[in-house]
């Protein structure tokens, strides 16, 4: 960003808002746009999907590693992915934003531009928000969606005999973060870009719902951890193929980064978070939507909720925790 | 709180969530409860109202002055007030929560208890959220509501000849904060309580809509500042009565605190924020709902958007800004 950007503290709140709003689409399904006490959004089938995710500076991102636009796109995408994971079409976002007074205004404008860039092509409106000072940047996004008359696809519907399938990348975000942490971003800049801004296929969620998916979730905390959640919610066991068989292209892609930082690509495939792929189960006779590939099968509940290559998983990490050791 | 409360960092994330969830009502209009990627909520008339507000530690509250329960109740109430200000009935909340690892778990449980205490009597469900670490407590609440088939009451519908009316307390929160800041909380503990937890009359919003209110907003940044917003959005001037005439009970109540800290009660009446009363305009022949009292009238737009006692306002402060000087 240009070194001469004013800082947030240099502007009145309204002036800062005036710089943010032009970047944010209103959305064609917004009846009362932002600017009042609340917005009004259509819910054509009499229901809406709602979810919330928070990004905190130095917990989920670093300003040294991510532009404002990266953070805005990522904040939008990870929330829209949760909407898609219910089988719903994203419609609207609201954004609670905390920024230190020392933040360059350009960075905040970039964040708004990133939110807009993620939302505009999907006709998702940014229909409200709030802005406050504080010691670090916090981006709290609530995303809203439309089930288009279909039942919600929860985590709880998987049945023995179903096919387990996955849509999207595996391990790219974790590998990109590892490269950044090791100062080796140049080994594979595309992995680093995947860490900075996940690009989930949001149409895959409604497509899975139309195809009869019995259960689905957004893989945000790693395949093993999220597979376990789906298995427990459904009372089944997920028997996943060996990661090298399930994700051959991703495995090949991650090999160079794994070598560079002394990690195992299979750990990233199984435990890497933040890719925001979709994990879903389908009846055995359902044709999988194009974005999905089969990676295992559902059995009745056995001792372990998740098996990998027929055995309990041995990955170094099974996901991450914001507070724990 | 007991000195032996464990800290957030002592618990795994799931253990912390297990302490929070029991305090939060699901709500009778929640179709898919929290625990999945997203919740599903009913929208009986095919629309919903949505709004977002953020509370940041040491900006909007201090942990030395407010319990977790206070902060939870306040975070819920100020968002529900925005829903009510559209004439809607609050239905659901989602909460993005940031807490430092050094926070006592009891404080976080108190916050959940406060959210629940605000929501349960109104059948408002806490239908989702996210939890993260960070350097200070941040509570980002998104509130959702049901217009029950009525048009939304925006800020933009006031017409010359309308009555200006107000529901709720004026100046109590600002006076309470001033007492706390001056170390004189014992002068009037009820004012201090009003600062810690506003208690807006949420039923007054839908009641105003049913009575034909032409414009309405939640008074969060002070009467003058919010009256100016309504006047500008509607293209009118609001002629407000002198505060001593408009709010005689509040004025009398604030006198002692004003003496104690060397402030003017009329400044709190005109410019004090965070009471979350409702400012509305009604057609001249509409009977006002019981919570409202007339405080002025609407005229065609003159030079000033707001007049007080026939003159441009002279208050020391016209509201507050999160970043500006």
UniProtKB/TrEMBL annotation, chains A, B:
| Keywords in alphabetical order | ATP-binding, Kinase, Magnesium, Metal-binding, Nucleotide-binding, Thiamine biosynthesis, Transferase
Q: What class of enzyme is it?
A: transferase
Q: Which Pfam families match?
A: AIRS (PF00586)
Binding positions for Mg(2+) 2 per the UniProt entry: 53, 82
Report residues binding Mg(2+) 4.
37, 51, 82
The record's HAMAP family line, in alphabetical order, gives: TMP_kinase (MF_02128)
Protein name per its UniProtKB record: Thiamine-monophosphate kinase
Q: Coding gene?
A: thiL
């Amino acid at each position: 960003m240009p070194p001469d950007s004013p800082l947030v503290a240099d502007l009145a709140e309204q002036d800062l808002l005036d710089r943010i709003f032009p970047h944010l689409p209103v959305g064609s399904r917004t009846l009362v746009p932002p600017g009042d006490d609340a917005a009004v959004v259509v819910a054509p089938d009499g229901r809406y999907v709602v979810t919330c995710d928070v990004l905190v500076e130095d917990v989920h991102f670093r300003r040294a590693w991510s532009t404002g636009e990266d953070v805005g796109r990522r904040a939008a995408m990870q929330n829209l992915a949760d909407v898609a994971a219910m089988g719903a079409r994203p419609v609207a976002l609201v954004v609670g934003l905390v920024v230190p007074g020392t933040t360059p205004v350009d960075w905040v404008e970039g964040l708004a531009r990133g939110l807009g860039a993620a939302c505009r092509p999907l006709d998702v409106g940014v229909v409200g928000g709030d802005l406050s000072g504080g010691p670090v940047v916090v981006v709290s996004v609530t995303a809203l969606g439309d089930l288009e008359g279909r039942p919600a696809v929860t985590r709880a519907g998987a049945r023995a005999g179903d096919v387990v399938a996955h849509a999207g990348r595996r391990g790219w975000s974790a590998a990109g973060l590892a490269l950044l942490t090791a100062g080796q971003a140049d080994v594979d800049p595309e992995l680093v870009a995947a860490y900075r801004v996940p690009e989930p296929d949001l149409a895959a969620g409604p497509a899975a719902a139309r195809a009869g998916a019995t259960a689905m979730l957004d893989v945000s905390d790693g395949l093993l951890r999220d597979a376990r959640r789906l298995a427990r919610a459904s009372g089944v066991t997920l028997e996943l193929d060996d990661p090298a068989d399930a994700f051959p292209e991703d495995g090949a892609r991650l090999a160079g980064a794994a070598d560079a930082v002394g990690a195992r690509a299979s750990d990233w495939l199984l435990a890497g978070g933040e890719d925001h792929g979709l994990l879903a189960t389908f009846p055995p006779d359902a044709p999988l939507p194009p974005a999905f590939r089969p990676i295992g099968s559902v059995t009745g509940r056995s001792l372990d909720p998740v098996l990998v290559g027929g055995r309990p998983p041995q990955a170094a990490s099974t996901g991450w925790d914001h507070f724990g050791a």
